[in-house]
Every structure is written in structure tokens, then in C-alpha cells.
Amino acid sequence: MADETQSAPVAGAQDQNATQEPTKMYVYYYSNPDGATKDERCHAIFTEVPFNVVPWRMHKEAPAESMADPVWDDKLNSGLGAWKENSGTAQGQILAEAQEAIANLKTKSNELDKKSAELDQANDKVDQAVKAMQQVQAQSSQQNVAMMKSFTAQTQNTNKMLATMQQTLAMVVKAVQNSATPEASKADAPA
User: How far apart are CA 65 and CA 187, in angstroms?
Assistant: First the structure.
């Protein structure tokens, strides 16, 4: 029969409860070999009513206290079943571990997505800065080209003015020489 325990009356109960005899409790052990969690593979169930026929997946025998993760195996004890240490090969447990691994991967994936978004934002800022620098460089180049054209035009104008001044000076020099020569001739001539 199932383990029997006795419980004391509830503290603070009315006087009539104080005269009642303690209730007899029966303990059964539920085990789902494919359970995803340790509690699904083995946990105690307490009842005041004994079972004549033990329900499916419930057992009267308690697992050994030395077992860390007990599970019921129907194949043991000549087919009568017995408690054994969980081997971790139950489908439910494997599925639970896989789901936990998937959840961890999703968390890491979300973290990577977040970091990737932050990196994308940083890259966008760098791209904007590079574009701004390129625009400044383009404007600077345009200004330099315009200044070079202006400088070239001014140089050409200066050269033309110098050429004109040289021609004018040459004409003045020639005129001075021509005018100085006839007077000098008149001065040298006998009167």
C-alpha cells in the first residue's frame, strides 16, 4: 500500500477541529518517463483516500532518496517496473533540452540583431560623415577650379596689358629717338 503519513490539525482552527483525530494521508508517486522536467518525471501526490487501483503513471513505491532524478521504468523488475536514475534519453527531456537550446540561440540571435542594428546605425553615421566630406571636397575643388580660371584670366589680362605697355613704351622710345635726332642734326649744322 502507499506510504502513509499523518498530519496535524491546522494551526488556529476552531475548537471543534481541535478534538478531531489527525487525518491519515496516503502518498503516491507520479512518473512520466518522457516528462520534460524533473517534476514531470517524478513527484509525490498526497491524498486522504487510498487507491484500490493505482492510476496510470502513479506508483505506490517511493524512489530511493539517493536518486537525483528518478523515473519509473516499466521494463525493470521482470516487467513489474521499478525506479531508476534518469538517463537523459527520454524524448520529452531531449525535446526540453532542445527547446532550451533553441531559446538560448534565439536570445543570442536577438542580441546579435540588436548589435547589428547598432552597427548599421554607426555605419550610417560614418557614411553621412564621408558624404559630407566628399561634398566639402567637391565644393572646394569647384572653388579651386573657379579660382584657377579667374587667376588664369587675370594673368592673361596682365600679360596683354604688359604687352600693350611694352609696345607703347617702344613707340615712346622710338618717338623720343626720332625727335632727338633731327634737333641734334640742326644743332650740329653750320649756320
Answer: 150
